[in-house]
Amino acid sequence: MQDFLFPSQSHSFPLFPPTVSQLKECLKMEQKYETRRVVALMNGCEGDPKLPIGSIETRTLTAVPSPSKAMETLDVAIRELKCNPPPLPSGILRLQVPIEEQIEAIEWLHAQHDNLPRCFFSGRRSRANGNGSNLLMDIGNGNSDTSFTHNLVGAAGVGSAVFFQQLHPFSYHDWRSIKRFLSAKCPLIRAYGAIRFDATANISPEWKAFGSFYFMVPQVEFDELEGSSMLAITIAWDNALSWTWDEAIHSLETTMQQIASVVVKLKKEASGEPILSKTHVPNKTHWDLAVKKALQEINTSSSQLIKVVLARSSRILTATNIDPIAWLACLQVEGEDAYQFCLQPPNGPAFVGNTPERLFHRKWLSISSEALAATRARGESSDLDLQIEHDLLSSPKDHLEFTVSVCDRVVVEPKKTVRKLRRIQHLYAQLSGNLRREDDEFEILSSLHPTPAVCGLPREAARLFISETEMFDRGMYAGPVGWFGGGESEFAVGIRSALVEKDSGALAYAGTGIVEGSNPSSEWDELELKTSQCTKLLQLEVPKQSKVENLEIIY
Q1: From which residue to which does any coiled coil extend (predicted)?
Q2: What is the DSSP-derived secondary structure letter of residue 167?
């Protein structure tokens, strides 16, 4: 008989197999919940972050050949857990099933219903210089000495075991509330989410579902690994938050009933269907006025402003609803050297993006960051591309934008290089250091965001200029997007992004840095270049699962 051991407690409870009396008790419990509908979920921000969770546990079950077999294994495990509830008032438990085949997490997510909260995050795994996300993890049977090391490529999740959201700015209390549910011993229990660019600004209707920040630990998660995959479920409960084990397990069952195990190979290409309309806020006339206003402020001797990043929101309407997951799958092809992400709260729009810019990556006490600034198109030939690179490196205006984007206090100027993406190239620099203690992570996040690359310099003067000048709510655009883990966390900057709404098309966002020497028309052209990777991929030709024809079925 296997025991379910909680490392922070001295007791255990049996997991396999249940007795006849326990099975009868399970049937009574199922009948009790048969007509009950769970309408509440657990907001971890409402708990006491100083009070530790009773247990944080991950268990790995036997590997299987396909997602459908993994579903069967997890369904059995859930029934057994119902018969043996943990004797603790709070906890978080992850059960994971390795799959002996590498399946793309984005394709698994596309197969799922869109009426559940969902998330997706993939790191930059194709970096020639080896700086992409590289989370190593041990996967093995808890009763075996054998373990295997895999690299995590991407993760997709639906449903929330616990979420974290407030209307006030993200605080140390909120960070501690998230970390309360995480442990370095369980590296794949992670909270995915995003934070607003400016938490002091009013939240517009399209961003209301996100609050000032939104994070979720998925109930059902699909992890794409190098050479294999993994399907996992997570149950979180806390009696102090009026979310009991019984409620948590029933909520998970409800979510599992909606999970599809058939995964369809996506066609990652645009259909060429025309965009019906595209409306910019601001339009070209108001953009020119805003840039001239910024330049006037920058060139005023009494002004502190050195750089300000102005942005544009573009409403894109197509003949049919935009599928955010299929769109994101195509962005993966566009941005192999970038982060891809999706975050969709309950009953809210989907925030998706393909960003090349890392905010920070922390593993234990080691931390790294980087800066991107200035933008040029890629050349049509290798000679022209090299000439554009030379112009980028030698431009005084772009060098000024780059130096103020690296740090507001540059002690040693980092080496400036060029980062080449599929359509565009940027000036680029890497930064790294060590934290004194883990709690410094919150201070790093607070000090790095918003970066000079998406806000300006000095930061507060630039933020005020943006709030007084821009005519739309940036929401999570240009804010931190990523995940917190126990011993590791990673955040990108939410640029090259869009907000996809049902029946309302998409809002695509782009920004450009205004410094001395900037030209309004040139900066507008840069906005068009940055937005092009989104607009050129609409609309996607991906049939609904009920109408699948001539598509490759993975499982």
Answers
A1: none
A2: S
